[in-house]
Amino acid sequence: MLEAYALGAVAPEEGAHIEEHLGECLACWDHLSESQRAAALLALAVPLEEPREGLRQRIIAQARRETDPVADFTAPRWRLRFPPVLAVGATAVALAAVGALSWSLVETRNLASDYNDLQTQTAFNQQRFDTTSGLVSVLMRPDLEKQAMVASGIATGATAYYAWTRDGKLGAVVCRDLPDAPKGKVYQLWLTCGPEPVNGGTFVAWHGECQHLVTLSCASPLSGVAVSVEPEGGSPSPSDEVVFSASFAH
Amino acid sequence: MARLAMRDIKAFEALYDRYGTLVYSTALRVVGDAQLAEDIAQEVFLRIWRRPDQYLPQRGRFVTWLLSVARNGAVDQIRTRGRRRRHETAGDESVRELPADERRDPALMAQLADERQKVRRALASLPLEQRRVIEMAYYGGYTQQEIAAMLGQPLGTVKTRIRLGMQKLRAALAPEVGGE
User: Which pLDDT band holds residue B92 (cuts at 50, 70, 90)?
Assistant: First the structure.
């Protein structure tokens, strides 16, 4: 069955069973990993067809546009009238001035951008460190229980489990091969321990992986968890776009 | 990849020159539609340009990761659009390689050509019924249940063929599989 899973040829419900089993079987992970590598090689066997030359230009042009918004600027519509000699001189001066100004603006923009990137990266790294530290402290607990979650939608092919402490106070979602949420969206955890789903916080995929900790304050026993795709900042109630779910028997 | 992370457009151009044909051909093999295959190839390359950190070396070689992204994107497209091409096995098709081109890395192209030969030989060495179900699953994006229905075979038979075929492929490609 792992061979079919590696080829992406299992139905969603079969995939869920396999993922559940994978959560408890390290040898199966190795077997699956080798099968996936063999499956990935199959793409090398396709007959070669040259795309049209226009495709290269289209892709490179789009990449350039996404790199440098300045490349998108359009020429100004106004034009000043100068005698030819003056025009050349004025043009040279103007170009030099524009060049210097542009360089200065670009450099300033780059520095500001670098600074912002560094700030964002530092905050993100700190957050990841905190999450990982918290996660380790949860996963090392002797009273830990865990259950595989069923993947669906854009997470099909990803694996995840929900782990929780028996005292019901701490929980964590851990996943692998999770694609990034669509632009402007995040993943949000939902806990079912009453009539309405309880918000368990938002998180993002990082290099295909996720680790999200939650502190529970449920009055009733937890009967299920789910992860959905929501707009950045989270939603007050889950959307229809559920990507992971699990229910617990009591 | 480090140069891509630094937004080096020349590195991106070189990446396309090396792998553009393979990525496009992979998508085309799945969707059977040149325009759609071009759109998929464009999305694959731009995805790398936007997020070069999505590729993790510890998960395998870049080329197989890249082609998996192309294949999965193509399968998603045909599943979404409900469009299917006929998935014949590629038995007697001539083995064409990329033409010499100064933009391409000759050593890399030679290595890829060698690997392509090995994978094609490994596929060709499978019994026809095993090869057919594997090709339908991988290039067609069909599930075992769909394959069983299309071939009019019991589901158990299809599962066995996939399992045995993949085991043989793994054995035949052991150096490539283990060497990643």
Answer: very low
Amino acid A125: pLDDT = 58
DSSP class per residue in A33-93: HHHHHHHHHGGGGSPP-PPPHHHHHHHHHHHHHHH-GGGG----S------HHHHHHHHHH
A14, A28, A33, A55: best mutation site toward chain B, by most B Cβ within 10 Å? A55
Which residue among B66, B83, B100 closes a domain?
B83
Nearest CA among B138, B116, B1 for reference residue B62: B1
Q: Residue B61 falls within a domain, yes or no?
A: yes
CATH of the domain at B36: 1.10.1740.10
A8-60: per-residue pLDDT in tens? 999 888 888 888 888 777 788 888 888 888 999 999 999 888 998 799 999 99
Domain spans of chain A?
Answer: 2-38, 55-121, 141-247
- Asked if the C-beta of A51 comes within 8 angstroms of chain B's C-beta atoms, the answer is yes
- CA-to-CA dists, residue A131 to A185, A211, B49, B54, angstroms: 20, 7, 29, 21
Q: Both B61 and B120 in a single domain?
A: no
pLDDT for the residue numbered B13: 92
Count of domains forming chain B: 2
Say if B142 falls within a structural domain: yes
**What is the residue whose two structure tokens read 């490994």?**
B122
Q: What is the ipTM of this complex?
A: 0.85
Instruction: Write the pLDDT tens digit of every residue in B8-47.
Output: 888 999 999 999 999 999 999 999 999 999 999 999 999 9
Looking at residue B126, its pLDDT comes to 96
Mutation to test the A interface, candidates B40, B119, B123, most A Cβ within 10 Å = B119
CA distance A173 to chain B (A): 21
Which range marks the domain in which residue B177 is found? 115-180
Question: What CATH number is attached to the domain comprising B161?
Answer: 1.10.10.10
- Nearest C-alpha in B relative to A56: B16
